[in-house]
Design brief:
With 425 residues, the chain is of the alpha/beta class. 33% of the residues lie in helices and 20% in strands. The protein contains 13 helices and 16 strands. Strands 1-6-7-8-9-11-10 form a seven-stranded mixed β-sheet. Strands 5-4-3-2-12-13 form a six-stranded mixed β-sheet. The chain has a three-stranded parallel β-sheet with strand order 14-15-16. Strand 14, helix 9 and strand 15 form a beta-alpha-beta unit. The radius of gyration is 24 Å and the shape is globular.
């Protein structure tokens, strides 16, 4: 069973000093409900959750941590919700503990709404910052403590600092970094008091962008800039944490080179930038406080491929994939020197009769040649909001000296909009 910090204040842990063994699985960034250029992906999500449920049953972990971005939007579809709750019902058995934290894509109030019901299944949900709810004691079948969990969700600007008139961008960043550090260190101190002399791990979660973290183009990771937490330093986390389960970045990786501070990455490629990337979940075996981390490859449920080049190259690649009976979804970029007015028709004809599905065709040369003044055949799909704002500043001939402050203010507005919770009253 789980005990919250409030429960623990009335029941100190004493007299047990022998170490314990436990197993944990770490996953994150499911983004249930995400589309790929209009193509719904529910079959992939369902296949992943079925696989994860089977792996959970086979490996028998004591704890499963889902480190944020459960859903892709703050108002997930009924189908996405059905997948989420069906998975929890399937794996919530016996003394297994499940911790789910909110990410920057999730609605805190939506996640929190059923938490009292889910708690009866040993599923502990933390959608928003709440010091008491974030501190948990994970107990085994005999009531013996197995771990202390600091279940920290995505920390929003308003959670960490008070806005003051006249603040500079550097002032805001300093306050955010200090607020982040203070929150984790306070939790860590409380967790150490609970652990006492026990040889059990303290496990922390986080949904943030760690300094030095790797991303790839078109991976769907929403930037966390001004008004948020980008490039969190490893020193922000106290040394008492024996494993830190991170979410937000979709590339599986170690944070700050640490074996025990990890991003599991997204289990599915969220865009063509992640095509060909091996997706993982992580298995952590604890012997007392000592953690041994293993990587578990996630099967590819729907291959994504990028094809780039001149027309002959594209048609040859399509023919090869067709003869391989591939069912990949394709992003095709034509980079040839000649204008091909019927490019789409030729590509679609080449893919006929196969399992290939063309999701996007980029033909940059048409605009290059016809307009003679645009470097790329850009659409809004190709531009980030900050790029559009930069174009506006350029169009209206805003002086260079004023642009940094305007761009920073615009970024903060975007962040405020992204962090608003439409489900809150």
């Amino acid at each position: 069973m789980f005990e919250s910090c409030a429960d623990q204040t009335s029941k100190r842990i004493r007299g047990i000093t022998k170490g314990t063994r436990m197993k944990m699985l770490h996953t994150s960034d499911w983004h249930l409900g995400r589309n790929l250029y209009g193509r719904r992906r529910y079959e992939e999500f369902e296949a992943f959750l079925n696989w994860l449920a089977e792996e959970t049953e086979r490996r028998g972990p004591d704890l499963l941590v889902v480190a944020g971005d459960i859903f892709d939007t703050t108002a997930p579809s009924n189908r996405a919700q059905e997948l989420y709750y069906g998975f929890l019902r399937r794996i919530a058995k016996g003394d297994r503990h499940i911790v789910v934290i909110g990410g920057n894509h999730d609605s805190p109030t939506f996640l929190n709404a059923p938490k009292s019901v889910l708690k009866s299944l040993n599923v502990h949900v933390v959608g928003s910052m709440d010091l008491e709810s974030e501190l948990l004691v994970c107990r085994g079948s005999a009531g013996r403590p197995e771990a202390v969990v600091c279940a920290v969700p995505y920390l929003r600007d308003r959670d960490l600092r008070l806005t003051e008139a006249g603040e500079s961008i550097d002032d805001k960043r300093t306050k955010l970094a200090e607020g982040f550090r203070t929150h984790y260190h306070e939790l860590g101190q409380r967790a150490e008091e609970i652990r006492g002399s026990l040889d059990i791990p303290i496990i922390a979660t986080g949904h943030c962008f760690a300094a030095g973290g790797k991303t790839v183009a078109d991976d769907g990771v929403r930037d966390l800039n001004v008004g948020s937490l980008d490039h969190v330093e490893a020193a922000a986390f106290p040394n008492c944490f024996d494993y830190i389960a991170l979410g937000h970045l979709h590339v599986p990786q170690k944070a700050a080179g640490s074996e025990t501070m990890r991003y599991s990455g997204s289990p599915l490629p969220m865009g063509f930038g992640e095509a060909g990337q091996q997706k993982l979940i992580l298995e952590i075996d604890f012997d007392g406080r000592r953690a041994a981390v293993s990587e578990i490859p996630v099967p590819c449920f729907q291959p994504l491929r990028r094809i780039s080049g001149g027309l002959d190259t594209i048609l040859a690649d399509l023919n090869r994939l067709k003869h391989e009976h591939s069912s990949a979804w394709l992003e095709i970029e034509y980079t040839g020197a000649e204008i091909v007015s019927d490019l789409r028709d030729q590509i679609e004809t080449a893919a006929e009769g196969s399992g290939l599905e063309i999701r996007r065709i980029k033909n940059r040369r048409v605009i290059d040649r016809v307009l003679q003044r645009i470097e790329n055949a850009e659409t809004l799909d190709d531009l980030e909001p900050a790029d559009v704002f930069d174009r506006c500043l350029e169009t209206h001939e805003i002086p260079q000296s004023q642009r940094p402050a305007l761009a920073a203010a615009y970024s903060e507005i975007l962040q405020t909009l992204a962090e608003s919770d439409p489900n809150a009253e």
